[in-house]
Every structure is written in structure tokens, then in C-alpha cells.
User: Fold this.
Amino acid sequence: MKRIYLDHASSMPVDPRVLEFAKPYLTKKMGNPSSLHSVGLGAKQAVEDARKKITKFINAENEKSIIFTGSATEANNLAIRGTALRNIARGKTVTASAIEHISVLNSMKNLQKNGFIFNVIPVDSTGIVDPGKLDSLMTKNTVVTSIMYANNEIGTIEPIKKISEIVHDKGIYLHVDATAAAGRIPVDVQNDGIDLLTFSSNDLYGPQGAGALYIKPGVKLQPVLLGGGQERGLRSGTENIFAIAGMGEAAGIIQNEMTQESNRLKKIRNKLIDEILQIDETYLTGHPTKRLPHHASFRFSHIEGESILLNMDMYNIQIATGSACSSKTLEPSHVLLAIGLKHEEAHGSMVITLGRSNTLEEIPLITKAVTETVQRLRKLSPLYQKGGD
Amino acid sequence: MAGVGYSKKVMEHFMNPRNVGVIENPDGYGKVGNPICGDVMEIFIKVKDDIITDIKFRTFGCGSAIATSSMVTELTKGMHVDEAMKITRNDVADELDGLPPQKMHCSNLAADALHDAIKDYKNKKRSKILEVE
Assistant:
């Protein structure tokens, strides 16, 4: 059975062109950018070239505004804890939407344990941040607000430009986690009015092990990791030049191909949504139109997500779920609860994120596998009484 | 293939569960869990001379919830009800070559559902005897 991989939000393959470009930095072009000899200078050049490409990718003011980290999680930690702790004189309140990534929420909760007030901004049933609540939950003591560009579990794209206006009216820093959005839709930090932006290498078909944080010129923050003072002192630790060089190259390629690839994936995605919604008691989660072009997410009544995932894997099709049983905490997805789903509804979720390997020809195979999976699990389920047989 | 750390036996029972379904007018019925927690199991038994002659289940839940339900029915079909009462959650997990630690509690309720079904059978039997007397 041919593999059909539909979980690109979890992990993506490295673009072969990127691998070809970055491979020498693992072998003969290795080197520590901090070394002053020629090999070290070569490594430093690789990092600076990548920084240039990343600057262009998000239309940052200048190269100095890009800090490389080891992951998006690390960039989120640096953005939130770094800004809050450095600007403590401005106040001790932080805010975030209820559907942020766990690395954002846990960074905020960590501040809360250390005397900060943490306000959570609710979203509507499609996952859009409530602008009125955003406005009322930010006070003059708020230092930083974190709203993601688009959500990884339900695909909803937030109105960042409008949010930026509200946040900036109050003189607060806006951090945007664009890990799910970057590479899928255009992100322009100057046009969108973003102070801090997180994104990762692997989500651009780059190697794992690199992330980046954009810091608008003038925004002050303190480091989270201390050491040799790399990355303008904001991220100590020897640079992962293979991953960083790869990230730069990946960003350049994905930017050039984005429009075409997004249109291609949107076609597949729309067809998939149409087909899967034919199954009864099946619902789309997230926003029907304001959603990432590669993203389709559903919930099925009366069945549980981990079972869906395992059953789909038997068809060699890989999907994701926000089910409690697939998580370490045994809690259902906080995103699905935030859009108002009941616990029992949140258990039966399925997330599909398409990528370059997917084709229109796969649609009938996927639809068949989903239909049979749902049928089989419902037949097993005591909750599915009506017309169960 | 998939996992969250499931044994081959768990996956085999998940894919080919034994004794799925409903028994009309069962001699005993047990139901445990709730949809909010993400696991609901129900077990139906037919009993003759205190021997479980038929057993069926339906389960809403994750891979281990389905596999443990299937295993319990396989283990206890043809068993004396008093013996079946002694089957524990750990026995079920052992028979499946183990379960991941986070699954031991919430998704391993099948033995409880079986015990409820047997208690239900015993209660019914007692009330029948009372009726006769």
C-alpha cells in the first residue's frame, strides 16, 4: 500500500534542493561561526546568508531583526518571557488567545507563577479572536499579547492586521506565532504590524533543529538562554549551521512557489472537505473560508480520535487528532474546547494537513479510508445507536 | 505502523476485535465510563448454569479501550462467572502483552464492565429465585 502522508503540520520532509544546498555544512563546510579562522568565517557567512533570505521571506526591516533559535518553541519562549521580563517596568500583565500553541501558553503560565497576571482571550466557534474581548482584556499594565497567525489544529487564519491596530493602540507589543502559517500564506511583518514573529525551519521544508524569531527594531527583550552571546546575545549556543543554512534556502524556495502550490493544495483540500462531509454526523472544525490552504479538520460524532488515527494508519494514511487519548495529559485539545466543543465532541477529531507529496488522485483513496474507518468505529460504539447496523 | 507504544497483540485486537455487538435480552449487562472522559464500554452476557456461554461488547474509545474489551470477551467466554469475577485489569493488560502506562487507568475498564455484567446477572438470578419462592 502506497503511503499517503496527511500530517504535514507535525513533520515535513526536507526539500531535496535544500538538503543538497545544506549538506556540505554537516561535512567539509562544518565550522563554528565564532571561530576566527577561515572555516569559522565560512560558517558565519552561511548563517548571515540565511539571515538575508529570512529577512526577505517575512519582509523584515533589516537582517539584524532576525534571531535564529533551535525551534519554534524556543522562539516563543524567548519572545514572551524575554519581552515580559525585560519590560517589567511597563507592567506585569500578559495576554494570549485561548488557542495558542502550548509553548506560548506554558510560557505565559510560567510568568503567572512568577507574579504576572495572565489574561486569556476567547475565540468564537470558528476560532477567530474576539476583537472586543481583546480590547477589554488588555490593560495599561499589559506588556505583550500573543495571537497566532493561523491555528495548526483548526486552520483558522486570524485577522492579524486588525488585531495589531487594537494592540498597538494600547502601546502593547504584539507577538505572532506564524509556525503554521509561514510558507502556506504570505507573511509580511511590516504590513501586518507585527513586533515579534515566530516560525520554524521544518514547516518550510527545511531541516528540523532551527527556528527564528523576528524582533522589530526598537523592541527590547532579554535572553532566556545564557552563554557565549551568539545571536546578538539573545540566543547563546553554537549555531546549528546545517539547519540554519537549510532554513534560509527553504524559505527562498517556498516563497517563490507559494502561490502556485497553495492554489494546487486548495483544490485538493476543497474536494476532500466536500467528500468527507458526505459522511453523516461529520462536521468541519475551524473557519469555513478563512483557513490555511492545505488544512482540513473535522469531527465525527460517536467515535474517538486515537482510534481514527490507528485505523487510518492501517490504510497507510497518516492523519492527526486532538483526542485526549493521543495526548500525554489525557486532556482533549484545548483548541477544540476553546471553540466551544464539548469534551465528548472534541474526542472525535481528525486533522489533515496536505503537502507537496499529495495529489488529486489520492482523494478517492482517502475518502474511502475515512468512510470505512468511521463506519467500522461507529459499529463498535455504544453511543451510535440510531441506525447503527 | 502506528503505535503510541502498543504491542502487536493490542493492534491485532484493535483491528480484529472479537465478539462485537449486542445480545438481545442478555442475562447480564454492564456499562462503564462516560463519553466526557472518552471511553464508554458495555458488555452483554448470556449465562447457563453459571457458565458464560456468550458475550458481546461495544466500545467507544481509543485503541486500548477497544483491544481490552475484545480481550476480556475472549478470555471469559466459556468461563464460570465466579472465575470471571477474578479477572483483573492487570490480567487483561498482561494478556495483551502490556499497555502503555498512561493507558492503564482510563482505557482499561473492560474488566470493570464485565464485573458489572456478572453482578447484574447475579442480581437478576436472585430476584428470579425470590419470585419463584
User: Anything to note?
Assistant: Chain B is about 45% helix and 20% strand.
